[in-house]
Amino acid sequence: MEKVIMGNHAVSYGAKLARAQVIAAYPITPQTQIVEMLSEFWAEGLLDAKFIKVESEHSAMAACIGASSAGARAFTATSGHGLALMHEMLHWAAGARLPIVMANVNRAMGPGWSIWTEQTDSLAQRDTGWLQFYCESNQEVLDSVIQAFKIAEQVLLPTMLVLDAFVLSHTQEPVDIPDQELVDRYLPPYDARYKLDPGDPHAFGAMVAPPHYMELRYKIQKAMEEAVEVARQADGEFREIFGRSYGLVEKYRLEDAEVVLVASATITSTARVVVDELREEGYKVGLLKVRMFRPFPTKDVREALAGARKVAVIDRNISFGHGGIFAEEIKSALYNGSHRPPIFGFIIGLGGRDVTPASIRGIAEYTFEHDTPEMEIIWREVKNS
Amino acid sequence: MRLALKALGEKTILVIPACCWSIIAGAFPYSSVKVPLMHTAFETGGSAAAGIKAALEVQGDTETTVLTWAGDGGTFDIGLQALSGAVERNEDFIYACYDNEAYMNTGIQRSSATPWGAWTTTTPVQHPKETPKKDIVAIMAAHRIPYTATATVAYPEDLVRKFQKAKGIRGAKFIHILSPCPPGWKMEPAYSIRISRLAVESKVFPLYEVENGEKWTITVWPKREVPVREYVKLQGRFSHLTEEDIEFIQENVDREWERLVARAVQ
Ligand SMILES: Cc1ncc(C[n+]2csc(CCOP(=O)(O)OP(=O)(O)O)c2C)c(N)n1
Ligand SMILES: [Mg+2]
After folding, report:
1. Kind and range of the H or E element at B38?
2. How far does the CA of residue B74 sit from the closest CA of chain A (Å)?
């Protein structure tokens, strides 16, 4: 069934179709409509889930951890400050190897308060052990919720899908809402391998001394490595059933491209249009969309950039004291490979400032005009710089 | 806010955790208040104020009043831990909670201050709120703090007197203000004062104060008494309630009022 819905409601439909059993969430702009719609589904009897209207995001994640530990499929959604408040429990969810799924609507961090889009909130959770997927369209958002459960439950790691504030969360797009029957075929009910079970009592999360702690961490990393192929497979199976897939990365007009733009989330859509225009004007330019950020698809990125003479990474985020986070990740992915083109790191659009086709054209032109970047961070459209 | 700041004077520092007042106070680069204002994270109204007070004291300023101005969500829910911690330590500040009985900034979701039976977007009419409003004043009083009070803008002299009294007391002070929210309560903006007065006259929101957790005093005895029906019927958030539901609310209000009267010094 096709419907015109906003990104937030695409998340709600995704969680409903995935038959999330326990939903614990807390309102925060611009995520709130996700929870409101789930609450409506539940009130109308369309969602057979237990809804916990907790008193903070820290409690939302803790409740999901409890639910998942007891064997239920758990879901939550948050944004910006809410995600930051969850931080301790994000480590906990991953360390406890729980396949919780969460949608995060990218929102800039305060102070000053901002409700607009920026990726620093979710990228700052990079090292917590969560898988992360950055979505470009409302369809991708809905589909990614369903895929996220499929992947998380195989590798036993929590998974976050990320969408831009307002640009996706509040923007209406036509979305195909898959049949429940097909989703059920793709995503069987969750059968927890390990859970709190009076019939088989175990203690979870007890003190681990140095002789064992490191092995537990080693296993998380192994599961992350495994997740690359699991995610690829989950995306392939999705295509077989629903006729759509997204890849871990997407290569757009990379054949003979001298300059490759690297983007994520909604900036990708704008960049695609700009690449088409520039191609028409004779520029050899292509686009690499990075959809999966954790685990980082190093092999795919190396392959995609194998022919690039120069790479321009567009970051709507910043790691203060270093630079754009995607740029740093791309640099580190290429360093031990055989091809190391110059990497230009652009920072743009923080706090939800619009990134227009002209902005992206400017980035491409800069990259064509320079052999190497003039500085480690190239700020775009900043007043007084 | 205007009345509170008038009562407290210029030597006041204001702390606002995330709430509607984060917006009302003005967006960068403006401020609609004439005292220093620190916006702070949603859950930190109690702890951020404690830090400011400590900094003033180490610099020899014992005069400036620190006022936290927070919504019900920031007080009853996400900020309760920080608030409880601050008042238990008896930090010398005033914590004012303007209570519009839901998360209004984010578009009307229930909080633990939402009353029984009310509609919000997360307590839809098919499943309105099934639990009573958290009794925050009793919780504060149970901390045995020097001063706890309730107030509304329908009784401005009472409200101003309470802020003035709080200013003169050392230690933790908590003032709970009922604040009608026209979109959230589905009511006419012109009825804000009338509904605030009806809340008092119907005993839904009595005006009283508690000193040291022990001395309970009713500060306004309503001249006119009205049934709860008068209060709820002006608000769309209660329009789905049946006669029995309203009767149920009435019984609870009567019982709470009797309990308050029994506790109060006459
Ligand atoms: C950690 C965190 N979670 C959620 C939010 C989003 N948020 C901002 S204000 C608000 C509701 C505030 O409700 P209340 O305290 O009752 O004040 P009101 O808006 O009703 O005035 C919420 C949920 C936030 N800013 N920070
Ligand atoms: Mg409120």
Report:
1. strand B37-40
2. 9
In ligand 1, the atom with minimum distance to the C-alpha of A27 is 23
Domain containing residue B214: 2-263
Taking only Cα atoms into account, the Rg of chain B, rounded to an integer number of angstroms, comes to: 18
Q: What is the average pLDDT across A196-201?
A: 96
pLDDT tens profile B190-238: 999 999 999 999 999 999 999 999 999 999 999 999 999 999 999 999 9
| Count of positions (residues) in chain A | 385
What is the number of structural domains in chain B?
A: 1
Looking at the predicted structure, is the pLDDT value of residue A384 above 90? no
Domains and CATH numbers, chain A: 2-242 (3.40.50.970), 249-379 (3.40.50.920)
Residue A250, beta-bridge partner list: A289
- Among chain B residues, the shortest Cα distance to A58 is held by B78
For A113, the closest of B39, B78, B109 (CB atoms) is: B39
For residue B192, what is the domain's CATH number? 3.40.50.970
Residue A343 three-state SS: strand
Phi, psi of A321 (to 5 degrees): 95, -5
pLDDT tens digits along A26-48: 999 999 999 999 989 998 999 99
Chain A CA closest to residue B73? A55
ipTM: 0.94
Burial degree of A331 (CB within 10 A; 0-12, 13-18, 19+): middle
Q: Which of A64, A3, A78 is nearest to A35 (CA)?
A: A78
CB contact A35 to B (< 8 Å): yes
* Inter-chain CB pairs, A–B, below 8 Å: 51
| Contact across the interface for B127 and A35, Cβ inside 8 Å | no
